[in-house]
Amino acid sequence: MRTFEGYRRANGSIGVRNHIIVINTVGELAGFTNKLAGLVPGVIPVVHQAGQAQYSEDSDQTIKTLVGTAGHANVSAALFLGMGSKDPAEGIVETLKKDGHHVHSIIFDKDKSITECLKEGKAWLESALERSKREKTEKADISELIIGLECGGSDAWSGITANPSIGALSDLIVEDGGTSILAETTEAVGAEHILANRAVNQEVGNRFLEIVKRYEQRAKAVGEDIKAANPSPGNKTGGLTTLEEKSLGCIKKGGNSTLMEVIDYAHKPREKGFVFMDTPGYDVESVVGLVAGGAQIVLFSTGKGSPTGSPIAPVIKIGTNPKLYENMPEHIDVNAGKIIDQNYTIDQIGEEIYTKIIQVANGEITASEKYKNHEFSIWRLAETQ
Amino acid sequence: MNYSYEGFKRDDGTAGTRNYVGIVSSVICSSAVVREISEKVSGSIPVVHANGCAQLGDDLKLTKNMLVGMASNPNIYSALLVGLGCETNQVSGLLKQIPKTKPIKGIGIQQLAGGTNTVQKGISIAEVWAEEAMEQERTKLPLSSLTVGILNVDADHDTLTKTGPVIGEVVNRLVENDANVIIGLSKTLEPAGHLLSERIIDVTEKEKIISSSKRLYRLRWKDPTRETTNDNEYTERQTNQAVLESEMTGSVPINSILDYGETPKENGLHLMNISSNLVESLSKMASSGCNIVLVVSKRGVLTGSIALPCMTVTPQSNKGSFDELIDYTIKGSNVHQESERIVEGLLEVCSGKQTQVEKLELGEFSIPHLGTTY
Amino acid sequence: MGQKVNAIKLDEKDNVAVALETLKVGEPLSIKGGIKEINVLKKIPYGHKVAIAPIPKAGKVIKYGECMGIATMDIAIGDHVHVLNVRGLTEEDKSFQKEVY
Predict the structure, then answer these.
(1) If pLDDT is split at 50, 70 and 90, which confidence band does B224 have?
(2) CATH of span B141-356
(3) Chain-centroid distance, C-alpha A129
(4) How far, in whole angstroms, is CA B262 from its chain's centroid?
């Protein structure tokens, strides 16, 4: 059985990082969030522009994502910045405290001046940083890991090298008792029946068909017929013949395991094994949802080369072709292009990814961590009011 | 009185109140690179946002228009567009749309084989521009080169009775002196559409404001086709408050209702559809050509626009937690005197005086959402 | 590892392989751990599919171990498998597949 060294949290979860973060509840506070993080080296700012003038579908999603992010196992401590008497920050902090998290909130426009808010924030972050240095790691089993599966900047090789290798890895993780979450509902259009057929029961299968259909209809409402537009002429030149084939190239990141559950954006899986999360195909928003849902590590295949990461979870970049690895090694962690020019098999790359996951879980820094790619954006549903 | 200010004259007839080199990301994927370039080149600003890919229809159009508008903003001396390469919102497309009245260039991470190269290349381009911008001097300019955004943030009944008449007088004075004024038309002002329509001559523009005056008309997740339900009709209370807020628009004629990063076609007073999100609204004003914004708030705001000075005006209050963020407090009751002082303060800021928010180096950019991402 | 592999079979059940480099007519296919003695009948650009088993008209084209399309004519071993001889699935095809449930 494979193991790794992680940080055990009060609620029992296990983290592969020990981050101190400062996070805003409303976009207006993004500047102060960055400013405060800048005052204490080592603190990561998690900033976004959501949270203001939103309909309930969006404000609920924002809060859910913020709770999942700040309460993540990779987070040692989180400071929330909020504004005004109706701000959700204090409520979020109460919820997280009950779950044993080390969190605090500062509300601007309540009873403190700006200078006092910054002073209090700096002091709290400094002591949180000291506290985090005293936290020790312990041995943990792979079955405690949740791995997010993502792709972005795909090319003709994505579905041939990197994604099937991620699929092989996902099957290994599931066999070892862990959890993998596939995402990007839009990418599944056309192959939804295949994944639905792999569902553990009819209810899960139907739920999956339902979320794919919903997205397809939503695109149609704004004039885009995903089925009619795919595969695109460019896809066909690259060798893709049917929509099923194109979508299979994406969903094969999930390997061949049984689909245990379909979860909403930023929700935590209740089941272990292979799970699907309803997210857009927009990679940054999708990764944010996966991480808020508890993924400690995200695998991200890329063919054209994408540097994006996450402020909370290490993102492991899997390059799809040898040329990309040659041109942009700084953004690639695993070169699945070796399948093309070095006779490697999909299973061998799957194993290599597994080894990399253990190394990263034990503290090895990924490309996106090295370059501080802390992109964070919450999936938006409706128009701003 | 003959008003003027000292600004940076542009080739297209507009003028900047600031002289920034804009580093603009086409997509969220290049935002870290954009931030790094702007951190290393003094005089440059990062224009980053969360959009640019997996967007369809009007959302993509809005993203494009706002970025084109930001690059064209008169406070931007020159603009460097930074893309990833595979995004929907291509840098090449933006370059075609941006009028060639200032130095504009585009680079991409994939084309330059990685973030490190892109940062280096970006710095080398931006440094040259930053030096040129530094050498440019302010000259005396008339108010006709000014586009003032006016944003009412969090007014309640009490605040509006104090600020409304004063700001209305400011608007009249600016327009009478040939300045362009763009006032935010958010859900708090929308219910006064009928009243405001009386000041509009153009029939199409009249229709626009009347149609938005009955109910909150925004796209919802369950309703992507803009089929509205009756449950969000504006109430009598909301309408009454909107009428009070409409005092802030003064009494001069209204020329047009602007949307989607549209810029005013002629000088005068314009209203602009905005959301009630501060950063999105300031960003929309910046992309429509404003070179300064007057933020009217009961307590002050916690950030500004990345490209525009935002002068904050508040009525007197005893709370004071945001004192460090406020530029002008309306203390007296003489409307004429107060509005005169605000215009004077505004022109000082236009001429280079830093606002409180600028002193704290705060400023954001964000693109509103009309619907979901895909 | 011996001979350079020039095509990949993504699943045991597949009847197509994907060219890892552009294959010339008459070139022998070398698939890791797979079949030998297949000669390519048409030029196969890299990333495109080549048949490694005969696929009859109306038969399933299997890639990733899943049905990705239906043959619109008989496809011989070594032939190029693409839009000219394969169509996507109809709703009818899919409901037929649901028997697996």
Answers:
(1) low
(2) 3.40.50
(3) 24
(4) 11
pLDDT at A280 over 60: yes
Inspect the interface and report whether the beta carbons of A256 and C65 lie closer than 8 Å.
yes
Q: Is residue C1 part of a domain?
A: no
- Residues whose CB is less than 8 angstroms from the CB of residue A235 and which lie 6 or more positions away in sequence, other chains included: A156, A246
pLDDT tens column, B66-88: 999 999 999 999 999 999 999 99
Give the total number of structural domains in chain C: 1
Render A309-359 in DSSP notation, one character per residue: --SSS-EEEEE-SHHHHHH-GGG-SEETTHHHHS---HHHHHHHHHHHHHH
Determine the structural domain holding residue C12 and report its residue range.
7-100
Domain boundaries, chain B: 20-135, 141-356
**Checking phi first, is residue A382 left (phi over 0); if not, alpha (psi -120 to 50) or beta?**
beta
| Beta-carbon separation of A340 and C20 below 8 A | yes
Which of A199, A217, A220, A219 lies closest to A208, judged by CA?
A199
Architecture of domain B20-135: 3-Layer(aba) Sandwich (3.40)
Smallest Cβ–Cβ distance between A380 and the set B28, B57, B369 belongs to B369
Give the integer Cα–Cα distance in Å for B65 and A253.
36
**pLDDT of amino acid B216:** 84
How far A202 CA lies from chain B's nearest CA (Å)?
25
A6 has which bridge partners?
Answer: A138
Where would I find the H helices in chain B? 31-40, 57-72, 91-97, 115-135, 157-176, 193-197, 203-211, 236-245, 278-287, 335-350, 356-359
Please check whether residue A9 touches C, CB under 8 A.
Answer: no
Which are the contacts of A160, defined by CB distance < 8 A and separation ≥ 6?
A249, A320, A339, C8, C10, C18, C47
Give the separation between CA A160 and CA C10, rounded to whole angstroms: 7
For CA atoms C39, C42, C48, C52, the dihedral sign is negative
The CATH number given to whatever domain includes residue C33 is: 2.30.130.110
Which pLDDT belongs to residue C35?
65
| Residue to test with chain A: of B31, B35, B110, B189, most A Cβ within 10 A | B110
- The number of residues making up chain A comes to 385
pLDDT of residue C101: 35
C24 falls within a domain: yes
Q: What is the pLDDT of residues B176-205, one digit of tens each?
A: 999 999 999 999 999 999 999 999 999 999
Long-range CB contacts (< 8 A, 24+ apart) of B314-318?
B314/B163, B315/B158, B315/B159, B315/B162, B315/B163, B316/B162
The overall average pLDDT reported for chain A is 96
Residue B258 Cα distances to A267, B158, B168, B183, angstroms: 39, 29, 19, 10
Phi, psi of B203 (to 5 degrees): -65, -40
| Better pLDDT: C1 or A99 | A99
- The rounded distance, in Å, linking the Cα atoms of C36 and C30 is 6
pLDDT at C99: 44
Answer whether A190 sits within 8 Å of C83, measured CB to CB: no
Residue A166, SS3?
helix
pLDDT (tens digit, 9 = 90+) per residue, B30-80? 999 999 999 999 999 999 999 999 998 889 999 999 999 999 999 999 999
In this prediction, residue B228 has a pLDDT band, given cuts at 50, 70 and 90, of low
Q: Which two tokens stand for residue A131?
A: 């506290």
DSSP character for A153? S
pLDDT over 50 at A77, yes or no: yes
* Residue B26 vs residues A367, B68, B88, B372: alpha-carbon distances, Å: 22, 10, 9, 18
Residue C55: inside a domain, yes or no?
yes
Can chain C be said to touch chain B, i.e. do they have 3 or more Cβ pairs within 8 angstroms?
no
pTM for the whole structure = 0.96
3-state helix vs strand vs coil in chain B, percent to 5: 40, 20, 40
Specify whether the CB–CB gap between B22 and B307 falls below 8 A: yes
Q: What is the ipTM, given to two decimal places?
A: 0.96
